[in-house]
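Question (not urgent): is this output format expected?
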Amino acid sequence: MFKTTIQFIRHSLYPSKQALRLRLAPLHAYMLASLILTLVVTVLDYIVLQPDFFWPMWLFLHGFAIFFFYMGFVAFSAILVQLVTRWLTKRTWPYRQAWPYAVAMTMIPVLFLIVLYHAAPSLTWLGVLMTFIYLTIPLRHIPVKSRASKKPDNAHMR
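Got this back:
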């Protein structure tokens, strides 16, 4: 279980053709990766913000909020993936394949977005741009069936 999660995270670090395989990842891999991202962001926020609130409660509530909003971000990203695959291949990936791919391709951009938000809030748009790039670059490598192979057989009309 941990081996496939580590492999899932490793393949999501860079948007490449190999990332397309992540759409078939098992449930435990992308959900555990989402949990790891949530924990990293929560700890990063705790270190930067240093809240004067009961720390276990703050970590729990903040972690829950981060996970909730990250899942919403992934949902919108998965819809974008479906739109792009529809545009490129004339067929839409099923949502059950678009979701793991969206989780994989938004992990690094979301981490980058959080760091930018703390370091330079006016540059957070770069994180959104990075998300768009991470999501769409590998999708350009989807194999598309050629239209020449789809010629109708008109032999019966002669």
